[in-house]
Write a structure and sequence with these properties.
The complex is a heterodimer of chains A (about 200) and B (about 325).
Chain A: H1 5-58, H2 71-83, H3 87-99, H4 103-126, H5 130-150, H6 155-167, H7 172-175
Helix pairs in contact in A: 1-2, 2-3, 2-4, 3-4, 4-5, 4-6, 5-6
Chain B: E1 2-3, H1 10-22, E2 30-34, E3 46-54, E4 60-61, E5 70-73, E6 76-85, E7 91-99, E8 107-111, E9 114-120, E10 123-129, E11 132-136, H2 165-189, H3 200-211, H4 217-235, H5 244-250, H6 258-273, H7 277-283, H8 286-301, H9 305-308
Antiparallel strand pairs in B: 1-2, 2-3, 3-7, 4-9, 5-6, 6-7, 8-11, 9-10
The chains are: A mainly alpha (about 200), B alpha+beta (about 325).
Organism (chain A): Xanthobacter agilis
Protein name (chain A): MxaK protein
Keywords (chain A): Membrane, Transmembrane, Transmembrane helix
Chain lengths: ~200, ~325
């Protein structure tokens, strides 16, 4: 069977062109998917490294963490320091978290910091050391308030802030009689320590 | 709750009354507080007051008198403010407060009033967002009735690792898409082992490329032979130099390669039946043989056309 080239070439040429376009599209899809795969692999690799750091810190092994590390890693390091009562080292990390974007992690850092401060204050109070306890309670309250400002529905922070508020109450203006002349009235900012659980005579 | 306030000095009020008599359409500024529930708040709760403000035509709120987010008192924060005009021409001032008061029993607290300055031309007057009272309640018992330590804190939020599920899923999807794309590409390109048709010239060209330049007479003859096998396989019979015309008519896509084919067969005749491979290598240099093989493979990869493969729609390109 023999056909003149001009007749046989036309549909053949069209099919050839169609297949070129199909191949181009498939090549683009493949390259795009490979690029996405590479990006995801890099991300997974970075996150797995971070997770290893977080696991090491949770397991009690200190790992160096730089200030530009992801928020989760900073939180892990801050928590590592908090549970070892190294609050002065943990505080800058929590401040950094509070400035960074990730609200959930910032709330966790502030709340944990509040817990660490309050636990330390309660520890002081149980040993009847009131003077060092009061500033710790104040700092704990500030941390809880910062956490609640970011997440008003955070019940555990509400509860622990309530504990702190009852330890050291500081509401001068609400307890003042408005009819009192403010200049005459003695400054009634006081701290009171109701019901200590144990350790008092 | 609605309160209409015009705060002026007494003589200004008298003047306003006169003006009101003169122009009965003059409206007074007004402010209506759309308040949330006034009870049942605990420490850390937020409450949003919305004041609907209606101003005289031409009057404006002095932006400097708008409240800014700040610590209002030791137990109250103003966390957000927003002033938006609504469809009816009123202004809506929404104020979100957060209470940090920890009462020992339910008690009423008051969010203080806030004066706004209204400007109308050079005149200034005050419009007050009224105070709002609400009842706040304790979160815990005053004395723990169940025993236990009243100082016991709620537990820490433990640091958690990055969840990787989403990344793995996306990576798997990307890998699957890359696999399907590559498979489809190989299929559409007719790569082995997906070739629908035998491609003898492609095989010959590949073999030559692998061997490199057929510089010796033996290699040259072997190269020519592998190309002859290609012609045989393509035409379906043993192809001799006299059959080139018939071959091109049978497979028209090879028409553009007719001169190449003729040179190849001439060199082959010299190499096998004439003066020998050395002379043929002068007639048609080995590099040229490789180049012709590559060109033939390319032409072969082109659509076979109905003449060669009438039954096969999807010829491998």
């Amino acid at each position: 069977m023999t056909l003149p080239p001009s007749v046989s070439l036309d549909p053949a040429r069209r099919r050839w062109l169609g297949r070129r376009i199909l191949r181009l599209a498939l090549a683009l899809v493949t390259l795009g998917a490979l690029a996405a795969l590479m990006v995801e692999s890099l991300r997974i690799g970075a996150h797995m490294r971070d997770n290893a750091t977080i696991a090491a810190l949770a397991g009690g092994r200190d790992a160096p963490v730089t200030a530009d590390a992801p928020a989760r890693v900073l939180l892990a390091r801050a928590h590592f320091l908090m549970v070892r009562d190294r609050l002065d080292e943990a505080q800058p990390l929590v401040d950094l978290l509070a400035r960074k974007g990730d609200a959930d992690i910032a709330v966790a850092g502030l709340y944990d910091m509040g817990n660490a401060r309050l636990a330390r204050a309660i520890d002081h109070l149980e040993r009847s050391q009131i003077d060092p306890a009061v500033p710790e309670v104040r700092l704990a309250k500030a941390a809880y308030r910062a956490a609640l400002t970011r997440e008003p529905g955070f019940w555990n922070a509400k509860y622990n802030l309530d504990v702190a508020q009852r330890l050291v109450r500081d509401f001068p203006e609400i307890d003042r009689d408005p009819k009192d002349d403010p200049k005459q009235a003695p400054k009634r900012v006081w701290t009171d320590l109701p019901g200590l659980p144990k350790g008092l005579p | 709750m609605r309160c209409s306030i015009i705060s002026r000095a007494a003589e200004a009020a008298a003047l306003a009354a006169l003006l009101a008599l003169a122009s009965p359409v003059a409206r007074a500024d007004s402010i209506a507080l759309k308040a949330p529930r006034a009870f049942g708040y605990v420490i850390g709760d937020t409450l949003t007051l919305e004041a609907v403000i209606t101003l005289d035509p031409g009057a404006q709120i002095d932006p400097a008198s708008l409240p800014q987010p700040r610590k209002v008192s030791s137990w109250l924060n103003l966390v957000a403010t927003e002033l938006t005009p609504d469809a009816a021409g009123h202004l809506r001032l929404s104020l979100t407060y957060q209470t940090f008061f920890s009462p020992l029993e339910p008690r009423t607290l008051e969010i203080p009033a806030w004066p706004l300055t209204i400007r109308q031309g050079d005149a200034r007057r005050t419009l007050t967002v009224p105070a709002f009272a609400f009842v706040t309640t304790p979160l815990r018992e005053l004395v723990a009735s169940q025993g236990g330590n009243p100082m016991a804190l709620q537990p820490d939020i433990a640091p958690r690792p990055f969840p990787l599920g989403g990344e793995w899923r996306r990576a798997g999807l990307a890998a699957a898409m890359a696999g399907f794309g590559a498979f489809g590409f190989a299929l559409a390109s007719g790569w082995r082992p997906f070739a629908r048709h035998p491609r003898p010239f492609a095989a010959a060209a590949r073999a030559l490329r692998r061997q490199g330049d057929p510089g010796t007479p033996e290699a040259y003859r072997a190269a020519l032979l592998s190309l002859h096998r290609g012609f045989d396989a393509t035409s379906g019979r043993r192809l001799l130099a006299e059959d080139i015309g018939a071959f091109v008519r049978q497979s028209p896509r090879f028409a553009e390669r007719e001169s190449d084919i003729a040179r190849l067969f001439a060199a082959s005749r010299t190499a096998f039946f004439g003066a020998g491979a050395e002379l043929a290598m002068v007639q048609l240099p080995p590099a040229e043989v490789v180049a012709i093989a590559a060109r033939l493979a390319r032409t072969e990869a082109r659509d076979r056309g109905p003449a060669a493969a009438p039954a096969l729609e999807e010829a491998a390109s």
